[in-house]
């Protein structure tokens, strides 16, 4: 807020002997604003001028022209006063418009603005090729800590203008500067409950330590972000899941083999020592390295390779874990560049006949011709190409060339990870041919390759679909006509049956017995007539069914041979991204949305929630699928699940809550249920957003842990009473809550986990933990606007 003071100007005695009081003028100082905003741009100066004039307008509205005449002002002065009022009104309107625009800033814009301030301070510390004294000059600065705290609040979707926690950033900065900040005292531990459950603990940072971690994260991002390789896609600005999939689909051309590497290891002394040693190449600051080591000794870093998917907003992923993991695995990325260049440019019998026409690769090949490197026979007529894509600790490889080269490359990579980076590599990741129908799992979806259909193949498939639809139509017509005729035969027979003859069905002389003689074993009553249909008609229909089935199930190649001028030669392979529809259906059953047969059912855990909260929960899973699977080749299956399972489960949950028919629920909640889009609405939304790239809505660095946070299951635990008040557990939110909820950890998938829309690996220590959430943040959690990382689980201890 701008500082304010008032000063009154007094007129001497006028001609009538009366003392006249001029308008009280209020002055606003921009000194504080300029201190808070180091840029000191023109916007602040204009805002200050607008405030001055607006205040003049506000305080002069009660001063009428008649009073001005009585006080001795002449017409010219009164005209100037009117002009000043008009001018003040104009500037005030301009200021209001500017303030309205500033309030429309998104969370990404706010975080980007906050990080830019810290970025300027970090760059000022670059001297002699290294960043120096980052702890003393940047992190141990009250303004930096305040900006880091605002970044945390922005992640929590909290209005920065609202009341904040009572933190003394000056004392925190002083403790960091003199090295007296106690890391262990600013942590708390949550462990699993129950005697039959394996004892597991999870250490969380308290708010002060979390702010320090956020400040360290931003500083390290500024230092290392420009130096990360293109292989890395995790927690990177302008990159994410979508960029990794785009690279695999469009940039990797004609691979022969692919595989993924599964690494597992908790942060230990060897890894931490290697990490800090590599950081000394760019940073010279023992104080910074010391506090990172203190966090490790207090188990507050929460950095683990493998174990759970990264970037899904899980509480066990620490604040510093993404940037530290990228810094550490950047050593791996650089080794991949070196090894891939070695394999691709190794001298062999016909190395000059490589299909790659890259001048850069040719130059590297000429440069290393004389070097003593291990030689591999990489093929005679086709060059070896190595492709790598890494998202945090999930690593994907695709190789063009012989299988022997792929095996040798995989062996070298595993050896480097074990011997140089001290990581454990699982031996489950086998090398698969890219044409293998099983495909490979990466980032929670399935990647496969199939033959690209040419125009003739598409024509054949289209014709098959038409024949299949025509055959199904004839089958429906045959069954409908047969049922109609059968009912007429049955009615004709029953008209001649007397009531007394029904009791004597066994009597061979009764009419009912004569009719029943036409019934074969296993036939329904309305099918008796089939024995009386003309044999030619039945034979003709059965022959049609047989021919249609043979054509539909026939091979495409044999059908193409019948087309004039067509060739069965394929036109290459294409890479497909397949959403795990079968896994999604299993998760729907686990969360209680479907029964064993896959039909929608009532989700009884959600019944006690408010109506809008129930609909928000179901809407959240739909929004996640639309955001994650739109580019998948089997997105039509996902749309079918949305319409048939998710929407119907929501309707049946509301129907069970109110104990009324489902049709009445659809009428009553029609506006709310429209948020769960139908298949047609999804297709319309796809058409409207087709030209909007995901880069505009996703940012892998600023929204890390939020864009791909899974949906969690919450049930109502109790209502909050005056005797037991409770505030919202979301960091930075001080709103009072009305209800306390129980968190359910429904599953713990093995790494790597499938991406199903639900939280796949919530730590077991958080199972059945009670948390208080205000209505806004409960909605944000359901819709995916915040993640579980924004919740302070230590609010009640």
From TrEMBL:
SUPFAM superfamilies: DNA/RNA polymerases
Pfam families (UniProt xref): Intron_maturas2 (PF01348)
GO biological process: homing of group II introns; mitochondrial mRNA processing
GO MF assignments: RNA-directed DNA polymerase activity
Domain Domain X: 576-678
One of the record's GO cellular component terms: mitochondrion
InterPro entries: DNA/RNA_pol_sf, Domain_X
Designated name of the protein: Nuclear intron maturase 4, mitochondrial
């Amino acid at each position: 807020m701008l500082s304010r003071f008032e000063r009154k100007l007094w007129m001497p005695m006028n001609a009538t002997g009366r003392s006249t009081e001029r308008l009280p003028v209020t002055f606003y100082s921009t000194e504080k604003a300029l201190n808070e905003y180091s840029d000191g741009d023109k916007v602040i100066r204009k805002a200050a001028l607008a405030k001055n004039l607006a205040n003049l307008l506000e305080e002069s509205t009660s001063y009428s022209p008649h009073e001005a005449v009585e006080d001795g002002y002449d017409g010219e002065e009164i005209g100037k006063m009117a002009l000043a009022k008009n001018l003040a009104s104009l500037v005030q309107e301009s200021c209001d418009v500017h303030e309205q625009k500033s309030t429309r800033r998104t969370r990404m814009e706010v975080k980007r603005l906050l990080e830019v301030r810290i970025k300027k301070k970090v760059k000022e510390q670059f001297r002699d090729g290294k960043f120096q004294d980052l702890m003393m000059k940047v992190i141990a600065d009250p303004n930096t800590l305040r900006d880091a705290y605002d970044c945390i609040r922005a992640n929590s979707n909290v209005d920065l203008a609202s009341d904040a926690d009572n933190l003394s950033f000056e004392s925190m900065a002083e403790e960091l500067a003199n090295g007296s900040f106690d890391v262990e005292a600013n942590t708390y531990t949550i462990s699993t409950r129950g005697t039959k459950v394996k004892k597991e603990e999870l250490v969380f940072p308290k708010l002060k330590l979390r702010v320090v971690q956020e400040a360290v994260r931003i500083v390290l991002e500024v230092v290392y972000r420009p130096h990360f390789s293109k292989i890395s896609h995790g927690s990177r600005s302008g990159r994410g899941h979508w960029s990794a999939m785009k690279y695999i689909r469009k940039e990797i051309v004609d691979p022969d083999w692919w595989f993924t590497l599964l690494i597992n290891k908790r942060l230990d002394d060897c890894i931490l020592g290697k990490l800090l040693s590599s950081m000394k190449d760019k940073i010279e600051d023992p104080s910074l390295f010391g506090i990172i080591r203190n966090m490790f000794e207090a188990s507050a870093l929460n950095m683990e390779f493998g174990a759970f998917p990264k970037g899904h907003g899980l509480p066990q992923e620490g604040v510093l874990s993404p940037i530290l993991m990228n810094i550490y695995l950047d050593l791996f990325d650089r080794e991949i560049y070196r090894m891939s260049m070695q394999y691709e440019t190794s001298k062999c019998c016909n190395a000059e006949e490589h299909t790659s026409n890259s001048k850069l690769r040719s130059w590297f090949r000429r440069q290393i011709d004389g070097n003593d490197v291990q030689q591999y026979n990489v093929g005679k007529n086709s060059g070896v190409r190595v492709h790598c894509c890494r998202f945090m600790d999930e690593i994907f490889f695709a190789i063009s060339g012989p299988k022997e080269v792929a095996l040798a490359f995989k062996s070298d990579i595993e050896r480097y990870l074990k011997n140089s980076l001290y990581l454990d590599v699982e031996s489950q990741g086998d090398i698969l041919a890219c044409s293998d129908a099983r495909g490979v799992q990466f980032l929670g979806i399935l990647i496969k390759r199939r033959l690209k259909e040419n125009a003739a193949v598409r024509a054949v498939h289209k014709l098959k679909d038409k024949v299949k639809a025509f055959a199904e139509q004839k089958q429906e017509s045959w069954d409908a006509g047969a049922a109609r005729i059968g009912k007429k035969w049955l009615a004709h027979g029953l008209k001649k049956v007397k009531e007394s003859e029904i009791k004597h069905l066994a009597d061979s002389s009764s009419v009912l017995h004569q009719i029943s003689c036409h019934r074969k074993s296993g036939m329904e009553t309305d099918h008796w007539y089939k024995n009386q249909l003309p044999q030619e008609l039945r034979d003709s229909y059965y022959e049609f069914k047989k021919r249609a089935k043979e054509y539909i199930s026939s091979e495409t190649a044999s059908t193409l041979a019948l087309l004039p001028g067509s060739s069965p030669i394929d036109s290459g392979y294409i890479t497909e991204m397949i959403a795990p529809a079968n896994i999604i259906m299993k998760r729907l059953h686990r969360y209680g949305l479907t029964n064993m047969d896959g039909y929608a059912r009532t989700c009884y855990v959600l019944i006690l929630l408010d109506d809008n909260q129930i609909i928000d929960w179901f809407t959240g899973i739909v929004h996640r699928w639309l955001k994650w699977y739109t580019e998948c080749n089997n997105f039509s299956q996902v749309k079918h699940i949305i319409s048939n399972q998710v929407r119907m489960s929501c309707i049946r949950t509301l129907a069970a809550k109110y104990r009324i028919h489902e049709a009445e629920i659809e009428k009553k909640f029609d506006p709310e249920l429209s948020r769960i889009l139908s298949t047609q609405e999804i297709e319309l939304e796809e058409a409207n957003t087709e030209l909007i790239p995901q880069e505009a809505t996703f940012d892998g660095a600023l929204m890390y842990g939020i864009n791909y946070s899974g949906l969690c299951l919450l049930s109502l635990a109790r209502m909050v009473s005056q005797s037991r008040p409770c505030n919202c557990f979301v960091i930075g939110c001080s709103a009072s809550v009305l209800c306390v909820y129980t968190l359910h950890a429904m599953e713990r998938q093995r790494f790597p986990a499938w991406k199903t829309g639900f939280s796949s690996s919530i730590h077991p220590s958080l199972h059945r933990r009670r948390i208080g959430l205000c209505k806004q943040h409960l909605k944000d959690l359901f819709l995916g606007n915040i993640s579980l990382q924004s919740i302070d689980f230590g609010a009640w201890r």
